[in-house]
């Protein structure tokens, strides 16, 4: 599943499109998570892409009269092609710009989304209840501490709740809890301010490391299949059940928390 670093890297890869005008829109398959609005084919042509922003895992493409909301779902990816090339089976949506560039969305499982918003984007139903961005200065241990006082659920589930903080998916939750030395099963309301400060710092550091890994794939963004794909990284615990801990040599364990696989080292994480 594309996580926040993949989405941010995708956004960076699309930046060359800013200032370009739309020639045409092709909707090959509107049956995404929600129907792709058919009127996009009429609305977007002639409009200029003003900016590309990101909120949580939504890419926000701001045009003259509204904002296109793009989400990659479980299996989506966006390519930026320098010229039109034959579409493949899972290429569902594309924007052809007047300079010849093509933005193409591929999504085999079709849990992704293409939506259009003409009102205030912050008030859109998908965005209005989102918590802070993890990489913003406004996100820190104090925020986590304040938001968890009445939450006895396991801390891992709570940091994956997008009303607490956005963009901390399953991989980065496991990894940042390991780096902070916190057992993922700890009730969220039992952790101290000091431990939450460490956790907030490690969430930021874990995501920054992934962004750096993604930066190296950005060079190849243009071209068929030129999307950044999914980053290959060395994880401390994620996907390593039964293997030796990279820090203490003990055995990494796997448990289910909130229906998600959770990996941790019982010795390093208390
Ligand atoms: Zn360990």
Largest sheet report: 4 strands, antiparallel
The bound ligands are:
zinc ion
List low-confidence stretches: none
- The assigned structural class equals alpha+beta
- How far apart are the termini? 28 Å
Number of strands: 10
Strand fraction band?
15-25%
Number of DSSP helical runs: 6
Strand order of the largest sheet: 1-6-7-5
Taking Cα atoms only, what radius of gyration do you get, to the nearest Å? 20 Å
Can you tell me the overall shape?
Answer: elongated
- Mean pLDDT equals 93
Give the topology string: H per helix, E per strand: HEHEEEEEEEHHHHEE
**Helical content class:** 10-25%
Structure description:
With 270 residues, this protein is of the alpha+beta class. Helix content is 23%, strand content 20%. It is built from six helices and ten strands, in the order αβαβββββββααααββ. It has helices spanning 4-14, 40-43, 141-147, 155-159, 170-180, 193-215; strands at 22-27, 51-55, 58-62, 67-71, 77-81, 91-97, 102-106, 113-117, 253-257, 260-264. A four-stranded antiparallel beta sheet has the order 1-6-7-5. Helix 1 crosses helix 6, helix 3 (141-147) crosses helix 6 and helix 5 packs across helix 6 (193-215). The longest helix is centred in the last third of the chain and has 23 residues, at 193-215. Bound molecules: zinc ion. Zinc ion (ZN) is lined by residues 245, 247-248, 250, 265, 267-268.
